[in-house]
Amino acid sequence: MEKKILNGFSGLSIYDKLRKFEYDLIEINLLIESIENEKIEGKDAAGFVRRFVDIKKLKKIEERIDRFLRFPLAETKPGRPVEYPDSEQEKKKYNLYRIEGLSIRQIAKKEKTSPDTVLRKLKKYNIK
Predict the structure, then answer these.
(1) Which residue has the higher pLDDT, 38 or 2?
(2) Euclidean distance between the first and final Cα of the chain, in Å?
(3) Which whole-number Å values give the CA distances from 112 to 106, 117, 123, in the listed order?
(4) pLDDT, tens digit (0-9, with 9 covering 90-100), for 76-115
(5) Cα–Cα distance list, 28 to 25, 33, 38, 55, 70 (Å)
(6) Are 84 and 115 in contact (CB under 8 A)?
(7) Most buried in the list 32, 50, 107, 123, measured by CB within 10 Å?
(8) 125 CB contacts (<8 Å, ≥6 apart)?
(9) Which of these ranges, 33-42, 56-65, 66-75, has the smallest mean pLDDT?
(10) φ, ψ for residue 26 (rounded to 5)?
(11) Residue 87: phi, psi to the nearest 5?
(12) Residue 21 and residue 7: Cα distance in Å, rounded?
């Protein structure tokens, strides 16, 4: 699944994007230093800054940058799929479990999933 690149960065090479990223981080650091050195009239300087800055949005961006710096160009890894596959085989298997008289917890233990997942699948396949 490929993300769409916005703001005209699609024409840049990976090297150019990383250089721009580095320059922008340096510029942000210099901007913060210049703001810290400003003299603001009044005692509520923190309140003045918070009126102009969305703290929650900045925290999300900070987490994203930190994650990128720890794991750049992360590859997708094998694992449990986001959505469980629908199939006739699975429907038959769950139907057989219920015919055998297994409870939701017993089915969950056999399938190595949570009871909530089993209940969701039973509802999806209309199995009682």
Answers:
(1) 38
(2) 36
(3) 10, 10, 18
(4) 677 765 555 667 888 888 999 999 999 999 999 998 889 9
(5) 5, 9, 16, 15, 20
(6) no
(7) 107
(8) 90, 91, 94, 95
(9) 33-42
(10) -65, -45
(11) -160, 160
(12) 14
The average confidence (pLDDT) of the chain is: 82
DSSP secondary structure code for residue 10 in this structure: G
Q: Look at residues 71, 77, 86 and name the one whose alpha carbon lies nearest to residue 126.
A: 86
- Asked if 118 contacts 108 with a C-beta cutoff of 8 angstroms, the reply is yes
How far apart (Å, rounded) are the C-alpha atoms in residues 20 and 13?
11
pLDDT for residue 43: 67
**What's the rounded Cα separation, in Å, for the pair 5 and 13?**
12
φ/ψ of 34, rounded to 5, equals -70, -35
- The answer to whether 122 and 94 have CB atoms below 8 angstroms apart is yes
Does the CA dihedral 42-45-46-51 come out positive or negative? Answer: positive
- Tell me, yes or no, if the pTM score tops 0.70: no
Measuring CA to CA, which residue among 96, 119, 124 is closest to residue 108? Answer: 119
